[in-house]
Amino acid sequence: MKQILFLLLILFSSLGFSQMYNPVKWETKVEKISDSEYKLISIATVDKGSHLYAQNIPEGGPIPTEFTYNNDSKDYKLLGETSEEEGITVNDAVFEMEIKYFEDTAIFEQKVQLINTVDKITGSVLFMACDDEKCTPPTDFELVFILYESAKGSEKNTNEHIEIDTKKTNELLYGMSSDDIVKPTASCGNEAVNLSVSSSNSSLWRIFGLGFLGGLLALLTPCVFPMIPLTVSFFTKSSNQNNKSGVSKALLYGFFIFAVYILLSAPFHLLDSVNPDILNEISTNVWLNIIFFLIFVFFAFSFFGYYELTLPSSWTTRTTEGESSGGLVGVFFMALTLAIVSFSCTGPILGSLLAGSLTADGGAWQLTSGMAGFGVSLGLPFALFAMFPNMMNALPKSGGWLNTTKVILGFLELALAFKFLSNADLVAHWNILKIEPFLILWIIIFAGLALYLFGKIKFPHDSPIKKLSFSRIAGGILVASFVIYLASGFRVNKQTNTFTSLTLLSGLAPPVGYSFLYPNDCPNNLDCFKDLKEGLAYAKKANKPVIIDFTGLACVNCRKMEEHVWPENTIDNYLRNDYVLISLYVDDKKELPEEEKIYVKRVDGGTRKLENYGHKWAHFQTEFFQSNSQPYYVLLDADGKKMLNTPVPYTPNEKEYAAFLECGLEVFNQ
Q: What residues form the membrane-spanning segments (predicted)?
């Protein structure tokens, strides 16, 4: 239990501090022992009041410090283990074990013997540090040991000050420096204001609503619905002793359900605080999307009734034992028990929420918003039933309809699975799951759902159907109508020479231009550039303003803009005739040429190596425009050096987006 409290300390510290807690600074130096032997020295300077954990920590304790040395070319060999100073050893009350840590300064040494001549050795250190209130997440830091300086003595080379000429790297990559960009000085009366804030808030509320809907669906599953009588029984016993106490416990019960699901999102804030780009890296990772696809298929067949998903029975046993504690602790364990025993039904819904949030723009806060909606939706009814047991009389009795709900969710999970396979296909440029096969698969899945509702298909736990109910007939007709709607996606839009985009599938299906029959490299058959330098060169020659479209292959809101805002006549005319469109994909995994695979400085400190075009364009966005969400639209003059107005993010309102483009033209023509 104490280890759990310590983990919660880490999680809440990541949510409570907008600036990253970073109490450890690393530097390196090298000592020459002989012509072939060197001592690599890593020095950690720890802020006052904080401590850094040692390398050897007993299992079940905090994350130990761990050194890794890159030696793929076998240029050297390690002599022994990395040594450390004596440090401070204490009996830790939280972990109930002896733990060694360092305060102020810690020195780690590793002897190496050279096999080949090298100028430097690189490595990394994974570490964790804490003070009395908070802890860092497990943090990875790059180490560079420069050997050729060792002849001068034990000179320091501080990693934080590795010489990177930002101006030169930006000139190499983008043909300009961030200092060359002139901020907008003019504004237009019709220009949209504070779109970033309103768009972000709107997006968070939208995913909160989706999470709330997911919680309502979870209530109607056979894993959750039967828990309601147990809840009523628990709080009825409590209220027999003291009515006010029963009500207060019921409210706490609802809050604890909410808190349990909120905590599930906390680790992603840790990741977000370490590296703002990391959630984008996760959401567009090819293999992770394939894993999501397989998990969703696995979830779907669980909903169909072919097997059950359950967490270890020991978890349930322990939380159930906790319920007998009474008071606040008993209520908490009651809520935790609900979350665990209902996992076989809520797990797939939460998985959908998790995966969907990571592919959205707000990352960790999107996930927290969705989890909050789910927790409120699930916690509020249980609290009400616990406060007012007589409400039980208005509930429908358990029956076959619970399994029907579960099977319907199975079909939805199966359909959503192909969204993640599509992401992997787009990012990896496989050119397999284009719009045609995607629509066909969805038509098959929802046709199967319609047949199920009409009683033509059965699954293992289905009860015999003597007569179709009104709800099944109405649901079957609704799903059959959706199948027809999906088929309408094969209509050809003559203006764009692509298939017709479907509003309900916006962001779920591949772009309509990603097609076997009607391929289109740019949205809506527009002329666009996918290289910054080429686009700017053309804009200068044509003397036209530039719109830089920071987008993503797996970006949901980007597809919504391209398929439902850009086709509007006024906007299409601006993009087609008045602007030079440069679309930069921040999740493109295509490798950069070797001369561009360089280290750059992050805007929030530290360094990173650019490996692919996604890294390059993401760095350009954060370095030049201090933003890392997509879509993001920047209007520049023909030279690409002056911003025409304030950039905007996702702007679903057509009038506001048209005003944004019109404003840029006005400023350009002044």
A: 204-229, 250-271, 286-307, 328-350, 370-388, 400-418, 438-457, 469-487
